[in-house]
Design brief:
Length: 331
């Protein structure tokens, strides 16, 4: 395998950011009202685009989306304490944690959470039932440093071998020649990447693949933070996040990270021709599909979120042709 440079087409994203008229959204709902009708938590991958959407999605001129970042202060409060004093909670980090927090709120019937962000599809049984509503498309590639011992041009089979700890790629333990990283437990990107490289999270946790790590120096690896990389490391990275970070639309945490090509296809703006793609979702209670404001904001091609293609593109995502679809439901 030869090392070859690739071109990351972030210029288009920078132009979009400059022309779309969308300001960088804060980590929590900004502006008025402080507390919104629809409060959501979860995915790191989609937190920034949902923050952007929260600034422009309105009903009768009032902002209705309250999206809380995956990381930040330890605790958040999602509803006005003067009206509902039960909504202070530990901040959920990642798609899995967001779904779990939403279910906890629904089961308690406390009104604290109304949706969850998810960058992976998880249709395991849930009570009450949940619906995964797609709104955008992301790609996921691998990230390495410019001087990495790994090439920036790999096949998906190469990546499968690396994440299966093939000695031909990673050396032998206990001191492997490559640090094979996954994001923190509960990450949707972690779940999606595991599926792509043919491993299960249960096997990762059980140590079946001993070269894989999800911590560095005892600290969990946060997804889409390239500062974890050294010249002997590899980690999956959202293309949309990379684009948004490179255009300064969101905080730039890339460090020295560069995205690699997979099967000869580069990680490009809007992910139009990249093989490793995924829908990203807002998860809502199935019982609310026909109820406003869930139906108004999320459901159907005319949903308010689906009409904001400019904002979605500004944050590095492609719009989903299935935006607003409600067919993906948990049993």
């Amino acid at each position: 395998m030869k090392k070859k440079n690739i071109l990351i087409a972030a210029t288009g994203a920078a132009l979009l950011a400059a022309t779309a008229g969308v300001t960088v959204a804060s980590a929590e709902p900004s502006g008025t009202p402080t507390y919104r009708q629809l409060s959501g938590v979860g995915s790191d991958t989609t937190q920034d685009v949902m923050n952007g959407l929260s600034q422009v999605v309105t009903i009768n001129g009032t902002k209705v989306l309250g999206s809380y970042n995956a990381v930040g202060s330890p605790n958040i409060t999602t509803k006005d304490p003067a009206v509902n004093n039960k909504c202070a909670m530990a901040r959920p980090n990642g798609s899995g944690a967001g779904r779990a927090a939403l279910l906890t709120s629904l089961q308690a019937n406390n009104g604290c959470l109304d949706f969850a962000r998810s960058s992976s599809l998880s249709l395991g049984a849930a009570s009450p039932g949940l619906t995964y509503v797609p709104f955008a498309v992301d790609g996921v590639s691998y990230a390495v440093t410019p001087s990495s011992v790994l090439p920036r041009k790999l096949t998906l089979n190469d990546l499968k071998a690396i994440y299966h700890c093939d000695p031909a790629f990673v050396g032998t333990g206990p001191n492997y020649s490559i640090n094979v990283y996954l994001p923190q437990a509960g990450s949707g990107t972690r779940s999606f990447w595991e599926t792509q490289v043919g491993i299960t999270d249960a096997d990762v946790v059980a140590g079946v693949y001993p070269c894989i790590k999800d911590k560095k120096n005892g600290v969990a690896i946060q997804e889409h933070d390239g500062r974890v990389l050294d010249d002997k490391a590899i980690v999956p990275f959202s293309i949309a996040q990379y684009i948004a970070q490179s255009s300064q639309t969101v905080a730039d945490l890339r460090g020295r990270a560069l995205l690699g090509t997979i099967d000869g296809k580069s990680a490009t703006t809007l992910n139009s021709d990249f093989g490793v793609k995924r829908d990203v979702y807002n998860v809502i209670p199935t019982s609310k599909i026909g109820t406003a404001p869930w139906s108004t904001v999320f459901v159907g091609k005319d949903a308010l979120v689906c009409k904001q293609s400019g904002v979605i593109n500004t944050y590095g995502f492609a719009t989903s042709p299935d935006c607003g679809d409600t067919s993906k439901q948990t049993p």
